[in-house]
Amino acid sequence: MKMPTVKYQRGDMVMGRWPGSNLYYEVKVLGLDAKSQLYTVIYKDGTELELKEQDIKSAAGFQSRSRSRSRSPSRRRSRSRSPARTTRRSSSRTAAAVAAAAITESAPSSRRDAKLKDSVEVRLSPLQQTKAAENNSNNKHEKKEENNTANEVNEKSEAVAEAVPEKNQGRYNLRRRKDDGDFKSVEAKVEQLEEKEAKLAAATPPSTPLDFGGKIGAYFWLLFLPAWVLFLLLQVNLEDPSLANFPPPLPPLEAFWDVQALGFVILWILFQAVLYILPVGKLSEGMPLRSGERLKYRTNGFFAIVVSSVAVAAAMHKGFDLTYIHSHFLQLTAASFIISILLSTYLYVRSHYAAPEQLALGGSSGNVVYDFFKGHELNPRIKNFDLKFFCEMRPGLIGWCLINFAMALAEMKHQGLNAPSHSMILVNLFQLLYVVDGLWNEEAILTTMDLMHDGFGFMLAFGDLVWVPFTYTLQAYYLVSWPNPLSLPALGAIVTLKLVGFYIFRKSNSEKNAFRRNPSDTRLSHLRNIPTATGKSLLVSGWWGVVRHPNYLGDLLMALAWSLPCGFSHLLPWYYMIYFIILLVHRDSRDMSECRRKYGSAWDEYCRTVRYRIIPRVY
Ligand SMILES: NC(=O)C1=CN([C@@H]2O[C@H](COP(=O)(O)OP(=O)(O)OC[C@H]3O[C@@H](n4cnc5c(N)ncnc54)[C@H](OP(=O)(O)O)[C@@H]3O)[C@@H](O)[C@H]2O)C=CC1
Ligand SMILES: CC(C)CCC[C@@H](C)[C@H]1CC=C2C3=C(CC[C@@]21C)[C@@]1(C)CC[C@H](O)C(C)(C)[C@@H]1CC3
């Protein structure tokens, strides 16, 4: 058996490649994972990463060639968008912290380097003038550079002029310029080499720690999640859905299968797909991918829900009885489950044909079950049809409202009412508001974790097509058989709670979305932020200065307002609230580790400034 080699020891100072680039920075080795053969290293700005051996070079060899012009990741961007320069209102303490985190650059010492420097200065002079002029203007422009595609492009062309000396001074692979005559050919070669290396680096993204209990956890969730949905549905169908009647009796297998139900689910998904591809509404840009590319998304969700409502009204007018959804709930769920399995299998298979830079960092463990569950490909698309975006925002989300509405009709039928109960109306209106708001602000989803970081696999396919429409509707389903009359004060209190939650949720999500899209937005100029080594900043005042996830706080208050109308007779309608606390606490900790990995010491600084995660002074 081949013994693993340990080339670098804990504590060694070496040069580590910055992921996705061809740049090397001084890093300290923290250890080697014997199993994955990945070295954990820490950059001088505090960022910890796992690197492959081939992405590490000995510092000695490097310095002899490069005269140790090593730069921290933050310095790498410093010419056009150093974190310190991008901060408009960040506290001097934070700016200083980042500045301190940057590795100091040693001045060229040899004659060769001095000569090199001279030529650099000659070449840079026009650029320096531009820079000076730019510096004299306000730094609004600089902030814009962070996230704006156009500016990314500007930066690149700027970088071409700037990068020449840098390349020759050996950020990565030092080459001496013989004279100015062959300068251009060297430049072209270096560029080619860098392009090749950047592609290679992107192709081997650093692995991130496994979530959800790792490989064993993935097996568990694959079995548990469908079983849990089944349990909820069987339980809510019981005459007395109390936990004392656990476990509910299992119906025969044939009871789950109904061709017509499968037909309706397929029809619904196809109908939503047609609405999605119609050239109506805005084409929004997603956040930059690792490759630098920005995908375009058709954000016409509001249009889709309006047309869907009209179509449902027309079907009802033609005599379609919507209470079919209530009476065939199990079969509709089973049909959606089958589709989600087929979709996940397709996603997993096609991920093997995807280019490496299209894979999600978190779903590339190499373990079939884990990657199938977590999602291997980040943005699977068929031409311009984005499968993840579509599934998350359309069939399940709009289906959720359709099912709730069907439950209101079923309640009237079962309870012999002329109108739905107050509780049913509240649940319907609250959740409708949540969905319509999500669709109205559809663009905001492009800056959420699912769209930016998570691969599309079973977890999201099942979550979008089964979990959301068939478990988020449980409160309405419950009310069909278990009415809960509400007093006027209770009604008023619940509505107030919902509105407060909604306000926090919407304001905080919009604030972050606006900041990520355009950090120099004048409406956000009063907000303080912390610069990070990646060039992005973190909001440290406003909603994101109150707690680290104000949007979760608002969402949880709304969840409470959805359960309260169902009363306290059973635990079942409180399922969403309990699940949601677990989901958001786990999501928060996933996000914390991801941000810690991305932003290093800047993230620690943010956490020291904003101490609570979701509930001020509590958690
Ligand atoms: N109803 C439901 O079932 C669910 C609803 N949700 C809701 O969806 C919404 C999106 O949630 P989710 O995707 O989990 O997370 P967020 O929208 O909170 O996104 C987290 C990301 O925001 C960025 N960020 C974090 N802190 C800051 C800061 N201080 N300043 C600027 N950017 C920051 C980071 O990304 P980066 O720095 O890379 O931009 C981070 O990874 C939430 O409102 C949530 O409540 C979520 C899950 C389920
Ligand atoms: C099956 C698992 C246990 C959990 C799967 C989680 C998914 C169901 C959720 C992950 C993030 C989601 C979001 C929404 C719905 C639930 C899922 C898919 C969201 C679309 C709901 C509407 C909101 O307005 C939103 C902010 C757009 C939500 C974004 C996240």
Automatic annotation (TrEMBL):
GO molecular function, one term: DNA binding
Compositional bias annotation for Basic residues: 66-91
Tudor domain mapped to chain residues: 6-64
Subcellular location field: Cytoplasm; Endoplasmic reticulum membrane; Nucleus inner membrane
Gene Ontology cellular component annotations, sorted alphabetically: endoplasmic reticulum membrane; nuclear inner membrane
Family matches, as InterPro entries: ERG24_DHCR-like (IPR001171), Lamin-B_rcpt_of_tudor (IPR019023), Sterol_reductase_CS (IPR018083), Tudor (IPR002999)
Biased composition (Low complexity): 92-109
Ranges annotated as spanning the membrane: 216-236, 256-278, 299-317, 329-349, 456-480, 486-505, 526-547, 559-585
EC number: 1.3.1.70
UniProt keyword Cytoplasm, yes or no: yes
Pathway: Steroid biosynthesis; cholesterol biosynthesis
Segments of skewed composition (Basic and acidic residues): 110-121, 139-169
Reactions catalysed, as given in the entry: 4,4-dimethyl-8,14-cholestadien-3beta-ol + NADPH + H(+) = 4,4-dimethyl-5alpha-cholest-8-en-3beta-ol + NADP(+); 4,4-dimethyl-5alpha-cholesta-8,24-dien-3beta-ol + NADP(+) = 4,4-dimethyl-5alpha-cholesta-8,14,24-trien-3beta-ol + NADPH + H(+); 5alpha-cholest-8,14-dien-3beta-ol + NADPH + H(+) = 5alpha-cholest-8-en-3beta-ol + NADP(+)
Keyword Lipid biosynthesis: yes
Key words of the record: Cholesterol biosynthesis, Cholesterol metabolism, Cytoplasm, DNA-binding, Endoplasmic reticulum, Lipid biosynthesis, Lipid metabolism, Membrane, Nucleus, Oxidoreductase, Phosphoprotein, Receptor, Steroid biosynthesis, Steroid metabolism, Sterol biosynthesis, Sterol metabolism, Transmembrane, Transmembrane helix
Family assignment from sequence similarity: Belongs to the ERG4/ERG24 family.
Protein name: Delta(14)-sterol reductase LBR
Organism: Cottoperca gobio (Frogmouth)
Gene coding for it: lbr
